[in-house]
Write a structure and sequence with these properties.
Blueprint lengths: L2 E4 L3 H9 L5 E2 L6 H8 L4 H23 L4 E12 L2 E3 L5 H11 L3 E13 L7 E12 L5 H9 L20 E5 L2 H5 L3 H10 L11
Parallel strand pairs: 1-2, 1-3
Antiparallel strand pairs: 3-4, 3-5, 5-6, 6-7
Helix pairs in contact: 2-3, 4-5
């Protein structure tokens, strides 16, 4: 059973590999800002699920047209919420720096959306999805120098909330409430639930 990953996220790819799944990564080429703008105001869970769905559908439709699809297609997206404001990827060093200075010593919620399409036999079938969330508590003693050094690595610029828990950013996180995989961008237990709801055994995806 093949799992097509409609994402170029190294963290999602590493997470799947760690649990025994070697997916087929396929970039979605979705304009996330345009999709979000077209959707209008949404709560964080709706927002990340909507983007995850857009990515999965873009990849599934493209692969069906090319005649090279047989398996399940997974899309994912993440966003970080603090003080009621939802943040995606900062992209710019100054934006990442501003966010880190505001969130150190505080807590926020990382939301991850999932969308799974049954495309066995090259036909688009049922699709299921939803979002999971976990609370992230940041250390209070993070210095400006540490923030600058972290930003200089480039790591926080292309991840939701400007932080990771599976790489250099891990030392700045005091604790996680909830599924830590959600913070990485892909809830493994929730993915298992989605896979089984499509009538596929989770263990059938193990190919490593």
């Amino acid at each position: 059973m093949r799992l097509y990953l409609a994402s170029t996220s190294p963290a999602r790819l590493a997470t799947l590999r760690a649990v025994g799944i070697e997916p087929v990564p396929v970039p979605s080429h979705v304009d996330e800002d345009a999709v979000a703008a077209a959707a209008g105001p949404q709560d964080p869970d709706e927002f990340v699920t909507h983007l995850a769905r857009a990515k999965a559908e873009a990849v599934a439709e493209r692969l069906v047209d090319e005649g090279g699809l047989d398996g399940l297609v997974l899309g994912g997206d993440s966003a970080f919420e603090i003080d009621g404001v939802v943040h995606g990827k900062p992209h710019l060093p100054e934006t990442a720096r501003e966010r880190w200075r505001a969130q150190r010593g505080r807590s926020g919620v990382l939301h991850s959306g999932h969308w799974l399409i049954d495309a066995r036999g090259g036909l688009l079938g049922r699709a299921v999805g939803g979002a999971t969330s976990s609370v992230v508590h940041f250390a209070s003693d993070i210095t400006d120098e540490e923030i600058d050094a972290y930003i200089a690595t480039g790591e926080p610029l292309e991840v939701a909330g400007a932080f990771t828990i599976d790489s250099k950013g891990a030392g700045f996180i005091d604790r996680i409430e909830g599924d830590p995989h959600t913070v990485v961008g892909l809830s493994v237990p929730y993915l298992r639930t989605l896979v089984r709801s499509l009538g596929v055994e989770w263990t059938d995806l193990w190919n490593r």
